[in-house]
């Protein structure tokens, strides 16, 4: 049931981030919007990759077998078909509005390969850090078809898909107790608006997929991430759109623990990274 929450002081935009065009996997073209220094600012989130192309040469190669340790990967596919297989024996196909949530924990080797040879492939991969005490947890995997993602519609026609966390009283597909991640896909019609409660201490950002979204009065164009300020008296987020627009809203409670990343491994110390590399080399990672 929707329980719309009144927002008295909406989060303002701290700054806009454009992201960096790069490629990963076996040559998938993507835009890395969150990485490096932003890992501290947007703790507990470690990475946001945005991919979107109708040219198969940009995505066909996919992401063949590769390892991960120490965090979770959340893949949200707006359009396209992608198959996942991993060393823990999990396999799944996500497509058109589906989500794949994988907890790498102590170690997983997986592949993420397109199951299409033409057409549009568009979506996101978000990396959510694990607290130190859970980094070596057992791997976990689940995929959610589009129909399994809870949704609600606000007065005015804005539709929100709740991938993780709780928004306006609607619980999402996944909840996590320590970082309490919120991951929403918000579809605003022309003239539509959206608001949701959000704890002041949680780090948060909005990424505009298409259209133009006003965030607490500041205009954010498509393909930009708006980092939201952490004001102690801010109690939520408010979006509005003058044209048909779409944005994701991501937020979570910071872990405030050391972050040491080496490619697909994210741990708390260099020693743990050295161990991960050794475990992978010796076939003990997964
Ligand atoms: Mn991966």
Architecture overview:
This protein is mostly beta strands. Helices cover 6% and strands 50% of the residues. It contains two helices and 26 strands. The strands form six sheets. A seven-stranded antiparallel sheet has the order 1-22-19-24-17-14-13, with no helix packed on it. A seven-stranded antiparallel sheet has the order 2-3-4-11-6-9-12. The longest helix has 12 residues, at 270-281. The mean pLDDT is 96.
Compile the SSE list and pairings:
Elements (H helix, E strand, L loop, with lengths): L12 E5 L2 E5 L3 E7 L3 H4 L3 E9 L9 E6 L2 E9 L1 E6 L4 E5 L3 E5 L4 E7 L6 E9 L10 E5 L6 E3 L5 E6 L1 E2 L2 E2 L10 E7 L4 E5 L5 E8 L1 E4 L2 E4 L3 E4 L7 E6 L3 E8 L7 E3 L2 E3 L2 H12 L5
Bound molecules: manganese (II) ion.
Query: How many alpha or pi helices?
Result: 2
What is the overall shape?
globular
Cα separation of the termini? 41 Å
- The oligomeric state of the chains shown is single chain
Q: Any idea of the CATH topology of the largest domain?
A: Jelly Rolls
What is the total domain count? 2
- CA radius of gyration: 18 Å
Which residue ranges are poorly predicted, with pLDDT under 50 across at least 5 consecutive positions?
none
Highest CATH level, the class of the largest domain? Mainly Beta
């Amino acid at each position: 049931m929707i329980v719309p929450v009144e927002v008295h002081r909406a989060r303002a935009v701290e700054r806009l981030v454009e992201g960096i065009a790069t490629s990963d996997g076996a040559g998938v073209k993507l835009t890395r919007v969150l990485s490096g220094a932003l890992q501290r600012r947007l703790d507990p989130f470690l990475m946001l990759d945005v991919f979107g192309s109708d040219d198969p040469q940009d995505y066909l190669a996919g992401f063949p077998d590769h390892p991960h340790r120490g965090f979770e990967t959340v893949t949200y596919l707006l359009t396209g078909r992608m198959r996942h297989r991993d060393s823990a024996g999990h396999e799944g196909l996500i497509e058109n509005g589906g989500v794949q949530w994988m907890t790498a924990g102590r170690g997983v080797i997986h592949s993420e390969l397109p199951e299409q040879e033409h057409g549009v492939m568009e979506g996101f991969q978000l990396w959510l850090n694990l607290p130190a005490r859970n980094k070596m947890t057992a791997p976990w995997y689940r995929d959610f078809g589009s129909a399994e993602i809870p949704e609600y519609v606000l007065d005015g026609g804005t539709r929100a898909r709740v991938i993780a966390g709780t928004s306006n009283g609607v619980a999402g597909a996944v909840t996590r107790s320590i970082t309490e991640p919120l991951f929403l896909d918000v579809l605003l019609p022309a003239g539509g608006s959206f608001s949701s409660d959000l704890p002041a201490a949680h780090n948060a950002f909005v990424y505009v997929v298409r259209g133009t979204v006003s965030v607490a009065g500041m205009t954010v164009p498509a393909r930009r991430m708006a980092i939201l300020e952490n004001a102690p008296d801010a109690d939520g987020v408010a979006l509005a759109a003058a044209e048909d627009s779409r944005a994701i809203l991501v937020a979570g409670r910071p872990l405030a623990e050391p972050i040491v990343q080496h490619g697909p491994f994210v741990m708390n110390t260099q020693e743990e990274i050295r161990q991960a590399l050794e475990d992978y080399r010796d076939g003990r990672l997964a």
